[in-house]
Every structure is written in C-alpha cells, then in structure tokens.
Amino acid sequence: MTKIFYTKKTLHANGKKREDAIEKRRKWQENQPTLQATKLVFLDESSINLAYTHLYGHAKSNQRIHEGIKDVRFKRQSIVSTVRLSGEK
Question: Residue 67 falls within a domain, yes or no?
Fold first, then answer.
C-alpha cells in the first residue's frame, strides 16, 4: 500500500509563463534604470478574511469541541496605503 504525504504547495500565477507577460516583464526590467526614484509611489494592500476561525482546539480524549461562529462568509477587511521615497503618504 502506498502512503500519501501532504506537502506545502508553492503557488504562482498561471499567466506568469505566457509569452505576452514574459515580454512585458522584460521591457519593464529594461526600463527600470531610467526611472526617477523620487517619482515612484509604492502601493501596499493588505486584507483579512473575517470568517477565519481556528479549526482545532483542546478537548478530552474522544470528545469533540462544539463552537458557534458568526456567518461572515466572503467578508473581508482591507487596508490600502502608499509611501514615497521621501516618506510621504
């Protein structure tokens, strides 16, 4: 009998290997040295899934944990921020 082992996946966008995406990435990399760093604005977005709850807990042997949770499926809270080389937002 063959054992099944679970391993962590390494995910990447499917379009990463498309010819048009490769060409756009190459052009972007070629033009980077000509960019003025003082004109760049860096955008950062972060979010959290509000439905997250722990799937495991501590219980006595052969007992289950029963816990109620709010129905917040598909709800997310996002934060968007920008920063420049000068530190301005």
Answer: yes
Domain contains 62: yes
Backbone angles phi, psi at 41, to 5 degrees: -125, 125
Determine, yes or no, domain membership for 86. yes
Asked if 9 contacts 41 with a C-beta cutoff of 8 angstroms, the reply is: no
Q: How far is CA 38 from CA 2, 5, 30, 70, 84, in A?
A: 58, 49, 19, 46, 7
Q: Is residue 66 part of a domain?
A: yes
Measured in degrees and rounded to the nearest 5, phi and psi for residue 87 equal 95, -5
Measured between alpha carbons, how far is 1 from 73 in angstroms, rounded to an integer?
A: 39
pTM: 0.46
Write out pLDDT tens, residues 11-70. 777 888 889 999 999 999 999 999 999 999 999 999 887 777 777 788 888 888 887 777
The residue range of the domain holding 43 is: 36-89
Distance CA 17, CA 23 (A): 10
